[in-house]
Amino acid sequence: MTAKTFYIETFGCQMNVHDSEKVIGTLLSRGYVQVETAEAAELVLYNTCSIRDKAEQKVFSRLQQFKREAGKGKVFGVLGCVAQQEGEKIFERAPHVSLVAGSASYTKLPEMLVQLEAGGRRLTGLSLDTDETFDTPFTRRDNPHRAYITIIEGCDKSCAYCVVPFTRGPERSRTSASVMDEARRLAEKGYTEIQLLGQNVNSYRDPSPAGWDFATLLERVGEVPGIRRVRFTTSHPRDFVKPIVDVIDRNPALCDHVHLPVQSGSDKVLSAMDRLYTRDEYMRRIQWLKGARRSIAITTDIIVGFPGETEADFNQTLALLDEVQYDSLFSFKYSPRPNTSALHLGDQIPEEEKTRRLMVLQERQRAIQIRRNSEAVGMVQEVLVEGKNQALGQWIGRTSQNRTLNFTHATDNGENLMGRYLDVRVTRAGPNSLVGESVM
Ligand code: 5AD
Ligand code: SF4
User: Fold this and answer.
1) If you average pLDDT over every residue of the chain, what do you get?
2) Is the CB of 342 under 6 A from ligand 1?
3) 339 and 384 within one domain
4) Nearest-CA residue for atom 7 of ligand 1
5) 404 and 301 within one domain
């Protein structure tokens, strides 16, 4: 491989998106040029997700498309969670793949690239007990205003359905000094929004003598001069403590939004999922959030059709939606995953029934969102401008509560508003976004 063009496609969560930024930065630093299509690239990388079977299948269908390219100078690499989970089996299934590497091995990427360039085949980077990958000198961030910072890798929970502990390994927190240093450097470069990332940010524990917990880290990042917005994802309710809400209440730079995945409204299902909290304990956290002085948007993740979920259990999840009145949610049909303990549970729910429950749940939530979003009509909200819809002549903004607010700008004289913070009056509301006009 001499000329160096690469293509990368990313699946899955923000952790993966950020990992790809690290991989892209490393490749660019080694003289590679990023291209827009797999066809045009000599090195084709897929950064994969295995959270559900559908996500996992995507990478194999991509690889299948290029089966005949093998030996024609194109080199294929599989990165991320499917790589970690399937390991060398990927070489059997897709013999034209040359590199299989999980997220904990990206610091070794430069060495692996040297080997690839020398014609190396069947290279692997699958160790999980490896040096940290938090901060590579090369991260190439995609967005000029909003930056991700990984604060904790891996997960020590063992939710019965979840593959993540196997694909991302045990929890490793980054030192607070290193997080703060990156936050300050980003602010100096002009970034105004930071998103703290981890599979479970709430169990962050500073490994240095300072010993900060997550609430402290959050507060300090919010105090970095120049940083106007701080978000974090994702939270496990068991580790979500009241001081986090107090810190949000105190510091205007912390966004009015908490994503608190509940998964189910039924105690029986929560227990079968090994979620380590009851519905009541979850609701206590919701009460903290609703009791805050600020109006904190609450979003969640729900799984329908977990083994043994009865109609009555499902109805308890619907009742939970009514009770919490989420601002938005992600909902999924349970998908059995390798290595997970739920694989061995009997009483699997038929696919059609999972589909039906998903539809019912989404319909219920849609009505809630229409109502909640309509409450915003007439209000003035600050947005960070993130894009423009040329066809509609509207700018695309995001509110602190993480809602999309599309707006027109009265004095639109061709000025570029990207990255600006503007006040916008909400004039209309749909189930998934708001519409408004900027106020002078
Ligand atoms: N099947 C369906 N959904 C899952 N999730 C995690 N594992 C599975 C699975 N096996 C969902 C959870 C989690 C979100 C990121 O993905 O709701 O919060
Ligand atoms: Fe997908 Fe989970 Fe891996 Fe993220 S951590 S890419 S959601 S499997």
Assistant:
1) 94
2) no
3) no
4) 162
5) no
pLDDT for residue 133: 56
Number of domains in the chain: 3
Ligand with an atom nearest the CA of residue 233: 1
Task: Report the atom number in ligand 2 closest to the C-alpha of 11.
Answer: 6
Clarify whether residues 299 and 208 are in a common domain.
yes
**Residue 244 within a domain:** yes
Token readout for 301 is 């993740």
311 and 404 share one domain? no
The pLDDT score that the predictor gives to residue 58 is 93
Strand, helix or coil for residue 140:
coil
233 shares its domain with 352:
yes
d(Cα 7, Cα 32) in Å, to the nearest integer?
10
Does residue 164 line the site of ligand 2, with CB under 6 A?
A: yes
Q: Which ligand is nearest to the CA of 165?
A: 2
Q: 2-39 as b/e, with b when 16 or more CB fall inside 10 Å?
A: eeeebbbebbbbebbbbbbbbbbbbbeeeebeebeebe
Helices of type H across 127-228 = 164-168, 176-188, 214-222
Residue 411: what pLDDT? 76
Position 71 scores a pLDDT of 65
Q: Give whole-number Cα distances, 203 to 170, 172, 193, 208, 285, in Å.
A: 12, 10, 22, 15, 16
Q: Which two tokens stand for residue 204?
A: 């962050």
Is residue 408 a contact partner of residue 437, using CB atoms and an 8 Å limit?
Answer: yes
Report residues of the chain scoring pLDDT below 50.
1
Does 133 reside within a domain? no
Question: What is the pLDDT at residue 317?
Answer: 98
Task: Report H helices in 194-241.
Answer: 214-222
Write down the pTM of the prediction: 0.95
Together in a domain, 229 and 365: yes
Give 375 Cα–ligand 2 centroid separation in angstroms.
34
Query: Tokens at residue 351, please?
Result: 């696919």
**Is 139 domain-assigned?**
no
Q: What angle do CA 131, 101, 24 make, to 5 degrees?
A: 85
195 lines ligand 1 (CB under 6 A): no
- Expressed as residue numbers, the domain containing 56 is 5-125
How far is the centre of ligand 2, averaged over its atoms, from the C-alpha of 195 (Å)?
17
**Do 185 and 321 sit in the same domain of this protein?**
yes
Residue 135 lies in a domain: no
- The answer to whether 200 touches 153, Cβ cutoff 8 Å, is no
